[in-house]
Amino acid sequence: MAFNDTSPSRLSRRSLLTGALSGAGLAVLGGTLGGAPAVAASRPGGRRPRVLIATNEPWGTYHAAPLLPEARRQGWEVVQLVPDRSQIKPDDPVTVATPDEIPRADLLVVTGAGDWPADCAARLRRLPLVASSLAYQLPQEAPRAKEFRKRLRAITASSPAEAKVFDDYLGTRRAISVVGTPQTDDLPRHRPEADTVLVLTSVTKSDQTGGSAPGTELLLTAAERLAAAGKHILVGLHPRENRALWEKYEISTVPSVQASARAEAAIGIPGTVFPVVAAVGVPLVGCTDPALQIPGYLRDVCAHTITTADEAVNAVDTAEPVSRKVLYEAVGPVGGSARRLFKVWRKAAIRAHAA
């Protein structure tokens, strides 16, 4: 596997990579819904290029939401494929489509090789296909990856470490474009408030949208210990977490990455948001459990990891920000990430149309 990454090696925390990435506009390419390919529509007034996204968490639109600002800037339409609308809120900013209403499209992006993205890839066999890692996976080949990996026209990951894991997960052994994490494109300035600790929750109970992570009980108890020690607990809720578990604390009204700007340190079960919070400059403490399976780079961005609540207060008090080297390995280039991602997608669609 090779990494397509030309980022400079000496970079600041808030701007590991800057610079403009420009590209020609994409003519709308032939989509397909199982029938004849759609006619290209590059003339003025033609529809915007449209990408369909299918994720391992079928209703998890929070993975696509960070892409929307750049999609609007570049004239793309992003549509997430969902089994039905049962778990989609009326005010969700992400456009969704069910199998009975899939629109004409130019590209299908799968963010994993779970049952739902694999099913979507099987149904939309004539659409150009790209795999983009928007949430962490485990470094072991997914059972259904073999069904579509030969079709992949491009693969992207946020960082070098994530690319290695995604390569193992897909079983591809090929070049992966390191594009950065779209959530880092608009990082807040770190202005910590005294004794404020951000608790990054995971998910207590599995459901149809996705699984849960071991360690929630440890995190709950750790939060109690920190509050008893005089810390102000600010909670960054996972979109699928049970809010009732955390209502005795302040629950952030803004996304966790934005909330992290207020925190002296953050504690939680290591997950996809950890490298992004680290990029803000916040020291991290990870709550780990023997049953917890996460890739190593998510542990690496933690100043400490704890296995008992008794360790929480000291771990938070002594936590320091991660080094630039470790940060880059985990989060990738910061700034312009969504633009780089759409550039890869655009090229994949253009090449498919030209073939």
The backbone outline, from C-alpha atoms, is globular
- Over all CA atoms, what is the radius of gyration? 20 Å
Subunit arrangement of the protein: single chain
Overall mean pLDDT stands at 85
Structural class: alpha/beta
Secondary-structure element order, N to C: EEHEEEHEEHEEHEEHEHEHEHHH
Number of helices: 10
The proportion of strand residues reads 15-25%
Give the proportion of residues in helices.
25-40%
Describe the protein:
The protein is an alpha/beta fold. Helices cover about 25% and strands about 15% of the residues. The chain has helices at about 70-75, 115-125, 160-170, 215-230, 255-260, 275-280, 295-300, 310-320, 325-330, 335-355; strands spanning about 5, 50-55, 75-80, 95, 105-110, 130, 150-155, 175-180, 195-200, 230-235, 250, 265-270, 285, 305. The strands form 2 sheets. It has an 8-stranded parallel beta sheet with strand order 1-8-7-6-5-2-3-4, sandwiched between helices. The chain has a 6-stranded parallel beta sheet with strand order 11-10-9-12-13-14, with helices on both faces. The longest helix is centred in the C-terminal third of the chain and has 18 residues, at about 335-355. Mean pLDDT is about 85; it is low at about 5-45.
Keywords summarizing the entry:
single chain; alpha/beta; eight-stranded parallel sheet; 10 helices; 14 strands; globular
Offer a quick outline of the entry.
The protein has 355 residues and is an alpha/beta fold. It contains 10 helices and 14 strands.
